[in-house]
Automatic annotation (TrEMBL):
Keyword Transferase in annotation: yes
Taxonomic superkingdom: Eukaryota
Lineage of origin: Eukaryota, Viridiplantae, Streptophyta, Embryophyta, Tracheophyta
Protein name: Thymidylate kinase
Any one GO cellular component localisation term in the record: cytosol
Occurrences of domain Thymidylate kinase-like (ranges): 274-429
Annotated metabolic or biological route of this protein: Pyrimidine metabolism; dTTP biosynthesis
Positions annotated as PPR repeat: 18-48, 88-122, 124-159, 160-194, 195-229
Family annotation (NCBIfam families): DTMP_kinase, PPR
Originating organism: Hevea brasiliensis (Para rubber tree)
């Protein structure tokens, strides 16, 4: 290979290639199965002063995956440790990915065990996603779902859309369409927004499973809610994207959704809030509205309150999962503080032209806390001054119907009698500006979605 000859000639004069050249060279050598020369290049690069040795090894390991040699992967890992070069999570993920591609799943699982027990650095979402995908590729469904549903979360990692997509793809490949759709519903319940890949995987998977009618229904569900919400925006606000009006602040007075913020009459994104009882289908409908608006060319983001990524949000999360106990007044103020700490960023996003779809907002805080018996006006007070939505969509479902849905009862507030009180609080709180949607179906995507507006 002429490239290797040039490399050798350069090293004689003290020249070492750039990272890009090094990567291209070792990959080409591995593709030609010339492991001897590939090692020589690695050894030369490791002598480079000031070089990131871990990164140099990582590039080499990634190239080695082209050889399908599990032994060589382990040899390089051992070499790293012997030279006191600590592998990072990227190193281990490359090795695990190599094992999975070779069908050496047990070796991948052993390495994951070493990571979770402290022998190596802790795994990340990529680690789990890679192994789960590898297990599904060889039909080891039970082990894959155990990692996904239990072990991943035990290690403090919440699966994102990439992990969910990997699970969905693997399950559909195994013709386990029903299990795949259960995972999709869990995805929505966890507040993870689906993306275009998610929808493509599901539609393709349903079609491959000869469930053509279900695929059509699913696609109708994806399209119809987005179209309905967009029509509500246009008809209610009489505005087109981007909006050109002032951002308002919450006043919490019936018949008056918000107060104008002075000096903000600029082109901006829309602020859309979805409210409703637990298991009413908010998360599902948010995930449909997001790709619809993106498909129309509007920059759009999906937000959810409480935002459990912040320190305040983590306190709320522990409370909701019954891991801690807090006074009702305290938790109400924490909910409000969680919205206030994100308010500045929300305003920046809106002013930049980004539309925000928000799953729960101030109105949930008031409805749920007042349902506990706290004073209605006291509950509203901390919310006054927050950014006011341009549109509130209230998903109207009876508490009894919500209680029939999968996963009900998993969190503190998911109790039928309490949800009835929440529904009463929402009725007292709702003003004529809200759009009330009664769903014939939605969260489970079982039937064609239908809805109508009712402000009564």
């Amino acid at each position: 290979m002429r490239a290797y000859q040039l490399f050798e000639e350069g090293t004689e004069f003290g020249y070492l290639p750039s990272e890009y050249t090094y990567r291209a060279l070792v990959e080409a050598l591995c593709q030609e199965m010339d492991l001897y020369k590939a090692r020589k290049v690695l050894e030369s690069m490791l002598k480079k002063e000031g070089g990131d040795r871990t990164r140099i090894y990582n590039i080499y390991l990634r190239a080695l995956c082209l050889l399908n040699s599990a032994t060589e992967l382990l040899n390089v890992l051992v070499s790293m440790l012997q030279t006191e070069c600590q592998p990072d999570v990227i190193t281990l993920n490359i090795v695990i990915n190599g094992f999975c591609k070779m069908g050496r799943i047990d070796e991948a699982l052993k390495m994951l065990n070493d990571m979770t027990t402290g022998k190596f650095c802790a795994p990340d979402a990529v680690t789990f996603t890679t192994i789960i995908g590898g297990l599904l590729n060889v039909g080891r469904t039970h082990e894959a779902l155990n990692l996904f549903h239990q072990v991943m979360r035990e290690n403090g990692i919440s699966p994102g859309v990439v992990t969910y997509n990997a699970v969905l793809r693997g399950l559909f490949k195994l013709q386990l369409a029903d299990e795949a759709m259960r995972v999709f519903r869990r995805m929505l319940a966890d507040g993870v927004a689906a993306n275009s890949n998610t929808y493509s995987i599901i539609i393709d998977g349903l079609c491959s499973s000869d469930q053509i009618d279900e695929a059509k229904k699913f696609w109708d569900n994806v399209r119809n809610f987005g179209a309905l919400a967009a029509r509500s925006l246009n008809s209610y606000l009489s505005l087109s994207f981007p909006l050109r009006c002032s951002i308002r602040t919450v006043r919490m007075e019936n018949n008056n959704n918000g107060n104008l913020k002075v000096g903000d009459d600029v082109s901006r994104g829309a602020f859309i809030v979805l409210e409703g009882l637990d298991r009413s289908g908010k998360t599902s409908q948010c995930s449909k509205l997001l790709p619809y608006l993106e498909g129309l060319g509007h920059p759009t983001e999906l937000w959810r309150f409480p935002d459990r990524s912040t320190s305040i949000g983590q306190m709320i999360s522990a409370y909701l999962s019954n891991q801690s106990q807090l006074d009702d007044h305290t938790i109400h103020l924490l909910y409000s503080a969680n919205r206030w700490e994100k308010s500045s960023l929300m305003e920046t996003k809106l002013k930049s032209g980004t539309t925000l779809i928000v799953d729960r907002y101030s109105y949930s805080g008031v409805a749920f806390s007042s349902a506990k018996g706290l004073d209605f006006e006291w509950c509203k007070a901390p919310e006054i001054g927050l950014l006011a939505p341009d549109l509130v969509l209230y998903l109207d479902i009876t508490p009894e119907k919500a209680a029939e849905r999968g996963g009900y009862g998993g969190e503190r507030y998911e109790k039928l009698e309490f949800q009835k009180k929440v529904a009463e609080s929402y009725r007292a709180l709702r003003d004529p500006s809200w759009k009330r949607l009664k769903l014939a179906a939605g969260f489970y995507l079982e039937d064609k979605f239908s809805a109508y507006e009712d402000n009564s």
